[in-house]
Amino acid sequence: MNILLVGSGGREHALAWKIRHNPNNTLYIAPGNGGTATLGHNVPIADTDIPGLVAFAQDKKIDLVVAGPEVPLTLGLTDTLASHGIACFGPCAYAAQLEGSKQFAKEMMQRTGVPTAKFQVFDAYEPALAYVRAHPLPMVIKADGLAAGKGVVIAQTYQEAEQALHDMMVSKVFGQAGEKIIVEEALQGEEASLLAFCDGTTVIPMPSLQDHKRIGDNDTGPNTGGMGAYSPAPVLPDDEVQAMTDRVIRPIVQDMAAQGHPFKGVLYAGLMFTPHGPMVLEYNVRFGDPECQPLMARLQSDLVEIMLACVQGRLRPELVHFSPEPSCCVVMAAKGYPQSYPKGMEISGLHEAAKCPGVTVFHAGTTTDGQKIRTSGGRVLGVTALGTSLAQARETAYAGVEAISFENAYYRSDIANKGLGR
Ligand code: AMP
Ligand code: GLY
Question: Whose CA is nearest to atom 16 of ligand 1?
Fold first, then answer.
């Protein structure tokens, strides 16, 4: 099959790796990275260039397009490809609003009875300010639209809350994405992620995971795209995954189908396990990054078969098997991330790391000139390992990390510790 994978991060390298487990698949990656270049043909088309991606797919007679990130989905990649008769794994633009608009997601949760934090939506500054001043701290201020993971502020003081409102609604730091905002009750508890394959009707969950969003050990410092992840997360054990899917994923998929926009692709629920029970923080309409890396390490089935079944509405449990072995991914970043950081540092030790049994090194922000691999982004690599236990997966992943070096490499030293502590 001819496959076009859209995106350039660690998630996309992990998807490319799994797609190429079947050597008969010809793979193009737009735009890809230094890792995907070893598995297929990187093509210099931006993941937001919908006409460019569609034209390429037509030209190369692509059988399946796989959307990694959310932005092309919210821009209508799937819809436009469908109008040209080309299959795309990932939801239509209407369904992608689950991630593209927090108001859309919150109202759908409210309508379908999915547990979530109490909230209020505002499209004008003055009423939002009055509401904030009249409600207890801490409180959460969120930009309605996509803000590259930076649109959520957990305000501990009124000054912080008012600053966030001003930044989003008056200074418009997130542009249009902050024209509407959500003020939400702050929840306390442990977070975990639940992702499911969906074909519009049938929903098949994957094993649970836990991401590590903060830059520093013990969840300190600013939020990032994710500094590591492991699976399963003991806070959501395997024998509770099906019931949680019925509670937080199935109602959404049913409602989408009833609205005439069946959800096909991966639906991702970000969960908080509060003292009052689990609640949904957000939905994503794609694999997480880095959550995809430990999931692909565990997936034993043919990913392309699953994706085609989702697109064609014939998903069945027999198609989806995961290894019982836990997995762990440690992200190596450029020092300075998530603020400014240098690029172009040469990376060494990749071959040595890959020799550690059970280790796969996924590239995120890397480029290659065919000889050397250099850093080109904040999150550089995701060193991923399977193990007979979570402790062993963790240890192996860190052995891989130790083998790799580039100037000022930074990584968290406590990935998966929460899971081991339970
Ligand atoms: P979101 O983009 O909605 O997932 O928010 C990003 C992160 O902000 C989440 O992973 C949580 O760590 C945090 N967060 C979001 N909403 C809340 C909330 N209501 N209470 C506490 N933390 C939250
Ligand atoms: N790691 C968080 C995300 O992909 O949304």
Answer: 281
